[in-house]
Amino acid sequence: MEKRINSTVYQQGRPASSTKRGSSIRSGARWIYRRLPDLIIYSYAFLYMYTGWAKFNNMTAFIRGNGKIPHLGPYAKLIGYGIPSLEIVLAILLIVPVYQIKRFALWTSTSLMAIFTIYLSLMVQFVEKKLCHCGGVIESMGWKTHIVFNIIWLIAGIYALKRTKL
């Protein structure tokens, strides 16, 4: 049985607001849901800044590793400088407070994550000696874990793109 008195809902003799915990959890969940695209965008910025910086700090090994990849070896130096530079530029663009720039950077970041995911999947499927020079902690993941990690990021990026339409 429910009564309304001064816009407060009472159930069985006590105000519904006495269950503050449930109310604050729902309020927190709504806040996260509304802010989730922004959280994803800033997380992408952190991820790309982290991996780009880690690759620059270990540039020699990154270029050497890329040189061993079939069909990509001749472009190892270009890839070695290009990928971390792109990641750092994207990280910066993702935090620029201009909607069109941020959205472009999110599209590019999500596309790059799709390319990385396809690359990893092909490496696992077709290359005997698997090479990963993603940088930092990410490099220490197992191959299947790394693919799942990338797929989660890819899904998150697509979700953020869908939620931030014009």
Nutshell version of this structure?
It contains 6 helices and 3 strands. 72% of the residues lie in helices and 6% in strands. The chain has one domain (36-163).
Outline the secondary-structure elements.
Elements: E1 2-5, E2 8-11, E3 14-15, H1 20-57, H2 59-67, H3 76-95, H4 99-126, H5 136-139, H6 143-163
Antiparallel strand pairs: 1-2, 2-3
Helix pairs in contact: 1-3, 1-6, 2-3, 3-4, 4-6
Describe the structure.
Its main location: membrane. Residues 38-161 form the Methylamine utilisation protein MauE domain. Residues 1-22 are annotated as: Disordered. The structure is a single chain. It is elongated and about 60 Å long. The chain has a three-stranded antiparallel sheet with strand order 1-2-3, with no helix packed on it. It has helices spanning 20-57, 59-67, 76-95, 99-126, 136-139, 143-163; strands at 2-5, 8-11, 14-15. The chain is built from six helices and three strands, in the order βββαααααα. By secondary structure, it is mainly alpha-helical. Helix 1 (20-57) runs antiparallel to helix 3, helix 2 (59-67) crosses helix 3 and helix 4 packs antiparallel against helix 6 (143-163). It has one domain. Helix content is 72%, strand content 6%. The two termini are 45 Å apart. Residues 1-11 have low confidence and may be disordered.
